[in-house]
Amino acid sequence: MLKIKDLYKSYNSKTPVLSNIEMELKQGEFVSVIGPSGAGKSTLLRCINRMIDPTEGSVVFDNVEMTGLNKKELRKQRAKIGMVFQHYNLVSRLTVFENVLHGRFGYKSTLQGILSIFSEKEKQLALDILDKLGMKEFAYKRCDQLSGGQKQRVGIARALVQQPKLLLCDEPIASLDPNSSKVIMDHLKQICETMGITVLVNLHQVEVAAKYSGRIIGLNKGQIVFEGLPKELSNYAIRDIYGSDLEDLLVE
Ligand SMILES: Nc1ncnc2c1ncn2[C@@H]1O[C@H](COP(=O)(O)OP(=O)(O)OP(=O)(O)O)[C@@H](O)[C@H]1O
Fold this sequence. Notes:
Shape: globular
Strand order of the largest sheet: 6-7-8-3-9-10
GO molecular function, one term: ATP binding
Keywords: ATP-binding, Cell membrane, Membrane, Nucleotide-binding, Phosphonate transport, Translocase, Transport
Structural class: alpha/beta
Order of helices and strands: EEEHEEHEHHHHEHEHEEHH
CATH architecture of the largest domain: 3-Layer(aba) Sandwich
CATH class of the largest domain: Alpha Beta
Protein name: Phosphonate ABC transporter ATP-binding protein
Organism: Ureibacillus massiliensis 4400831 = CIP 108448 = CCUG 49529
Bound molecules: adenosine-5'-triphosphate
Strand content: 15-25%
Radius of gyration: 18 Å
Domain ABC transporter: 2-246
Number of domains: 2
């Protein structure tokens, strides 16, 4: 469902931030991208939905080449790709319910969006998704009254209300404590397994990636230096990805 070929990204004329990226995702896979800070994880995710334009290469998602799309075509493709952010990207003064409905904007005309016109079916979908994520009771609370973990569940609900085929999660647990992180990762895994949605997640924590992923991709300096099953993530692989051993990466 996603095929990336020969992808390059340079922000300026110097060394590319991503080079020669080749990867494929199948429907229903749960894949993590790990790598040190600055390796290019966020850039890679954003090149998929063209929040960032790749410099060279091909990104085929759901049988459509993403790189050549015009604004209208891109909007249609993007509706099928949900995104979850480290800092949630919610509108704090709006309610949980309103934020979740924003996920439907990709299916609306500009006017419908401005006037926040949503059908009963869309509203019910938003509530059902909030219910699945244990957030229905907070539907009419303002988002600035929520904890980080609750905000992230709203972020996930907003992505799911798009009814996406692919969920891109950019360090979804980087701002959360261990308990909230577990709740979020469990939800993402469940979404993948029960809804068949493909999940691609950037993570800083190797042990979390190993626990939840079907497959792991390791990035170093913009290049894929590892791709395999969690059990194949040897000390050699860790060194290739991070330039140090796993023990040295674990905080005492
Ligand atoms: N808009 C930008 N303009 C110029 N350089 C950028 C821009 N965004 C990112 N970079 C650079 O590209 C490189 C990769 O950044 P990116 O954020 O993709 O890495 P990352 O692996 O996600 O890092 P982190 O784990 O710290 O979020 C870094 O050197 C960064 O400074």
